[in-house]
Amino acid sequence: MAKQSNGRLSSPQELEALRASIIKTGDAQKPCITVCGGTGCHSFGSEGVADAFEQEIKRQKLGDKVDIKVTGCHGFCEKGPVVVIKPKNIFYQQVKAEDIPEIIAETMVKGKIVDRLLYTDPATGKKITYEHEVPFYKEQKRLVFGSNGLIDPAVIEDYLAIGGYTALAKALSMKPEAVIAEVKKAGLRGRGGGGFPTATKWETCRHAEGDTKYIICNCDEGDPGAFMDRSLMEGNPHSVLEGMVIGAYAIGGHEGYIYVRNEYPLAVKNAQIAIKQAEKLGLLGKNILGSGFDFNVKISRGGGAFVCGESTALMASLEGKVGEPRAKYVHTSEKGLWEQPTNLNNVETWANVPLIIKNGADWYGKIGIRGSQGTKIFSLVGKINNTGLIEVPMGVSLKDIIYGIGGGIPDGKKFKAVQTGGPSGGCIPESLLDLPVDFDELDKAGSMMGSGGMIIMDENTCMVDIAKYFVNFLEGESCGKCLPCREGLKRMSQILTDITEGKGKEGDIELLERLSATLIDTSLCALGSTAPNPVLTTLRYFRDEYEAHIKDKRCPAGVCKALVTYSIDEEKCPGCGLCVKACPSEAITDMGKKKPVVLDQEKCIKCGACYDVCNLGAVIRK
Amino acid sequence: MTTKNKPTKQKISSILDSYKRDQGMLVAILQDVQAEYNYLPKESLNQISEGLDIPMTQVYSVATFFKAFSLKPRGRHIINVCLGTACHVRGAGRVLEEIGRQLDIKPGETTEDFKYTMETVNCVGACALGPIVVIDGKYSGQMKTDKVKTLLESYD
C-alpha cells in the first residue's frame, strides 16, 4: 500500500497517486471469488460460505492465486447465497458451505464449471454460466447499484480502485453554483418518494440565511417492501458519503447526519466504518483534499417510527424530540434542524450525485426519459419468481419489469396487481401493465414512485385485505398530532375491517371515498394526505371485490377469514395425515391409511395450517 | 431473569457521557440503555432526564413514541415477526398467529417464564425471504406455520 494511505490526502493529485498505487498493487486478472454478504444472502448462510472458501483456500495453499471478497448485495436475493467468480463472472447460486471444496477443486484449479450450481432459466430450461447472461441481470442498467458486487464495503481502497471520490475531486475544482447547475441540468429528482427536483432544494438551501447549514441523508427506509437504501448503505456506503460531501460543498454546509433505521444494524456499522476511513484519508473532516472545505458527518439511529421518514418529523427526532411533523409553511431548506437551513435527500439520491458529476449532466440526461432522467432501483417482491433488487432506466414498462426481469408469477398463478410507492402508493391492475414506470405516469395512475417498492400480488391476494393492511399500518404509525389522520384512519380501518368480516353494508364504499377526500385535503403532513391512496386505487380498479364482500359476503381471493371455509377434497386426499399433525385445534381426524381425512367445521379456526402443509391441493379454501 | 443486568447509576452515567450529554442524542441514549437492560427501567429514565437537563415529560414522550422502546421488562429472547407488505402477501399474519398460539401470548406480550417476548415489525428489509421471523437478531426466512414449532424449540 502506498505511503499516503497513512495520512490525509491534501490534493486531488495525491488522491490520484493513491488510486494508481492501489490499482497497480492489485491484479485485475487474478481470480477473485466474491460472496454476496447482503442481508438476503446472509440469512441464507453466506457467512458460512465465505468462511469455508477461506479455509479451503488456506488448506490448498492457493492464497497467491485466488482472492476472496465478501461484497454488498448483488440483488438476486431469491437465489442466495450468490457467489460470482471474477474476472469471468461465473455465477453460482444457492451455494452451500459443503459445495466449496468442489468449487475450489473444479473451477479454481481446473477451470471447469460446476454445472449443478448454475442458474437455470425457467423459460428455456437452459443453464446459464455468466452473471451478465442471467435474464434477471441482462435487462437491468445497474449504474448506482452495480458497484455493490465489485467491492468490499468495509475497504475504502476497493471503492477508490473503481474510481471512487473522483467526482468529489472534480466538484471541489468547480464553483458551488456550477455543481448545482450540473445537477439541475441532469434533472435529478428525489428518489425517496416525492420526486422533488434535487437541485432546486439545494439552491434554496444555499441561498437561505443561517449560521450553520445541515446536510442530512435519510436512511430511515420505512416503506414496507423497500430495501434498496439498506442495500446501498450496506454495500456501497462511500458512494452515498461522496454524494453527501459534494452536496454539502454545493450548498455550503459543514455538518451532516446520516439518519439510519435501527433495524438496519449492518448499514449502521458499514456507514460508521466508511466515515472513519474517509476521515482518515482527508475525504471528510477539515480541509477536504486541501480545498479548504470542511464537512463532518455523524450517524443517528432511528427509533422505529414510519413518520420519521417525513423530513420535519425526522429533524424533530434528530433534536431528541418526539418525531412529530410540523406544517411546512416555511420549508426545511430554509428552517429545518435546530431552526437552521437544512437539506435532506435520501440514500439513493445521494448515490446518484457522484455519477452525475463524474460523467456529466449530458451523459446522465440520456438515461431514462424526459422528466424522469436516470435509473431507479426497485425492490421486486411478493408473488414473483425472481425476488430481489433491480435497477432500470426510468420509462421501462411494468410488464418488462415483472415478466422480463422478474420472470413472472410463481406456481402458474395469475397476476392481479402491483403495489408501488409503499403505504402512500397504490395498486396498479393488469390493464395498466404497459405503463412506463416514471414519476409522472405512476402519479396519473393514482399510485406513486415512492421509494421504489414493487409488491407483486397474484389471484390469491384479496384487494380489500390489502387496503385494510395499509390503513391499519398507517393508523398504527400516525403520530396523532392532527385530527383527520388520527381519527380518519381509525374510522377507515373500522369500515374496512367490517367489510372483511362480512359486516359491510350499502354506503360503506361511498363513506370510504368521502373520508379519503377529507384526509387528502386536511392532513398536516404527507403521511395523512397520501394515506387514502391504497383505498382509492383498489376502489378504482377492484371495486367488484369490495362489492363481493359487501353484497355477496364472499372473498373472491379466499383470504378474509370470516368469509372463508376450508374443506377436504376427498378425491385428492390420500390420508397422509400431514394436515392432522399441523392442525392446532384438532379439527382434522385421521381415518386410516389411504382414506381421506375428515375436517370438523365446528372446531376449525380457519388458521390455514392444513392448506399450507398439503402439497397435493387436497385442502380446498373457498 | 428479566433483565440482562441490574441497572446501575454508573452504567447510565457512562452512556450519557459517551454522547457528551448532548440533548439531541436522546434517542440514541435510550437505544443504548435498552440494549443494556432489554427495556427502559424507570430509574434510568429519571437519571437521563436529570443528566441531559430535559424534562421527564420529554424523555417519557420519546420513550413511548418510538416503537423500538419498551417500558416493561422483556423476555430473554425477542421474537420479531415482520409484517411488511411482502411478508403479508406471503402469509406472515398466519405465522404470527401460530407463534402466538404456541406461546399463548399476543403481539407485545411476554411469556410468563420471561423466555420470549413477541413483537411485530413493519419491515426488516429482507423482503425476498418473506415471511421472516427475527429472533434475537437472527433471521429465519421463508417461514411457514408448520416450521414455527421447530424454530421455537431451537431456543433455550
Entry keywords:
heterodimer, A: 622 residues, alpha/beta, Glutaredoxin, Ubiquitin-like (UB roll), 5 domains, 5-stranded mixed β-sheet, 25 helices, 14% strand, B: alpha+beta, 2 domains, 4-stranded mixed β-sheet
CATH superfamily of the largest domain in chain A: NADH-ubiquinone oxidoreductase 51kDa subunit
Give the strand line-up of the largest sheet of chain A.
14-13-17-15-16
CA radius of gyration of chain A: 26 Å
Could you say what the CATH topology of the largest domain in chain A is called? Rossmann fold
Strand order of the largest sheet of chain B: 2-1-3-4
Largest sheet of chain B: 4 strands, mixed
Helix-strand makeup class of chain B: alpha+beta
Strand and helix layout:
The complex is a heterodimer of chains A (622) and B (156).
Chain A: H1 12-25, E1 32-36, H2 39-43, H3 46-59, E2 67-71, E3 83-86, E4 90-92, H4 100-110, E5 119-120, E6 127-128, H5 135-138, H6 156-161, H7 166-172, H8 176-186, H9 198-207, E7 214-219, H10 228-235, H11 237-251, E8 255-260, H12 265-280, E9 296-301, H13 311-318, E10 342-346, H14 347-359, H15 361-365, E11 368-369, E12 372-373, E13 375-382, E14 388-393, H16 398-405, E15 415-420, E16 426-429, H17 439-444, E17 453-458, H18 463-477, H19 483-500, H20 508-522, H21 526-530, H22 533-541, H23 543-551, E18 566-568, H24 578-582, E19 588-589, E20 598-599, H25 609-613, E21 619-621
Parallel strand pairs in A: 1-2, 7-8, 7-10, 8-9, 13-17
Antiparallel strand pairs in A: 1-3, 3-4, 5-6, 11-12, 13-14, 15-16, 15-17, 18-21, 19-20
Chain B: H1 9-18, H2 26-37, H3 42-52, H4 56-65, E1 77-82, H5 85-89, H6 92-103, E2 116-121, E3 133-135, E4 138-140, H7 148-153
Parallel strand pairs in B: 1-2
Antiparallel strand pairs in B: 1-3, 3-4
Helix pairs in contact in B: 1-3, 2-3, 3-4
